[in-house]
From TrEMBL:
NCBIfam families: xanthine_xdhA. GO terms for molecular function: 2 iron, 2 sulfur cluster binding; FAD binding; iron ion binding; xanthine dehydrogenase activity. This is Xanthine dehydrogenase small subunit. Gene3D superfamilies: 3.10.20.30, 3.30.465.10, [2Fe-2S]-binding domain, CO dehydrogenase flavoprotein, C-terminal domain, Uridine Diphospho-n-acetylenolpyruvylglucosamine Reductase, domain 2. It comes from Pseudomonas palleroniana.
Amino acid sequence: MIQFLLNQELRSEHALDPNLTVLNYLREHLGKSGTKEGCASGDCGACTVVVGELHTDAQGAEQIRYRSLNSCLTFVSSLHGKQLISVEDLKHQGQLHSVQQAMVECHGSQCGFCTPGFVMSLFALQKNSDAPDSQKAHEALAGNLCRCTGYRPILAAAEQACCNKPADQFDSRQAETIARLKAIAPTQTAELNSGDKRCLVPLTVADLADLYDAYPQARLLAGGTDLALEVTQFHRTLPVMIYVGNIEEMKCIESFDDRLEIGAATALSDCYSALHHEYPDFGELLHRFASLQIRNQGTLGGNIGNASPIGDSPPLLIALGAQIVLCKGETRRTLALEDYFIDYRVTARQDSEFIEKIIVPKGHTLFRAYKVSKRLDDDISAVCAAFNLKLDNGVISQARVAFGGMAATPKRAKSCEAVLVGATWNAATVEKACAALAEDFTPLSDFRASKEYRLLSAQNLLRKYFIELQTPHIETRVTAYV
């Protein structure tokens, strides 16, 4: 059985289909049709809801952390121990919530289909903001698409909603909600079981290892932003899932003198601060990784584990020399990330083995990353490049160059690196290294880019890296090219 709060109503579910999304649960099981389905793939934001969960802040105080999510990509099992808020919950005692009122007064809605999603993104923004902030408003709304209104009045609504924001019913009930969430905090492995399908929800790494050993055919569910597409887009059935999002050990970030250790179930939005502090380019790329709703769900371990050749984090991690810790039963092994990827969607992971954490070395001061995509925000890379050199008196002593979108796996450019190591860091060396990229990669053409475009882009990004290191005041990193 799983338990969660539907606003303030306690829900206990045990026989639901684990393949059921929160979107369909709201609409088909509860009759709450305010949440809309636009794309069923996490691209439009019409289905946005907000999930609240207990969080201890830096001062040790217990709070509720509110996050916007795409309900079309969220399975009901991931709600265990949390609070779900949909657009119907905002109006209180006959009065519109202040974010709803702002949308009305700023004329932020026309047809209204996308409006509930915008309202919920604004609600999360208001809860996480102390004052109007244009950059945060753009970030909060980047995952919500509108076909008819235009974004100026919606951004005006965001400014109004976050300016002198009034207290609402969620503020007045905060202590009560915290107490109720503590009362339903998971204490043992939970299960959602419809007879022919089941989802198990362990609380510890040890429990996960035991369950995965017992059910090696199970699909591991973290954020679900990729896995859920098998249900919503390809209409497949997932008979057994194991949800790892309640394992606190796998959601921690630890900083040591020489490395970061990031739990595989850590949401991308939680990774931002630590990675941006060490590597600003990594932080900037995370901003462009996807919408905030996706980053609130998607995990660093999931982005690695799905072995996509166009995943944005693996090329950067490979260039940094990152490692992963793989766990199976009581056995752990540490593997260089570049050795994890074998072929298209084929990895070195053994049956019942899972990624427990990612180890990211510190101290690479010449690390840079670039993403080429058709849109600046919320778009998949045509090419993703990461460069990491070490220079000694103008001579390249170490080189790690990695790309995504150029091969069947995220991959180092070994021929390019061989040209660079031992050579003087100058334009002539860069041109030789650019030529060597043609030996490293024979990219494919698809609807995102032709093979010629990809190869030329990869070469130009290396030239860009050289120019920026020579003249850092003109750098324009993590740039999109149309």
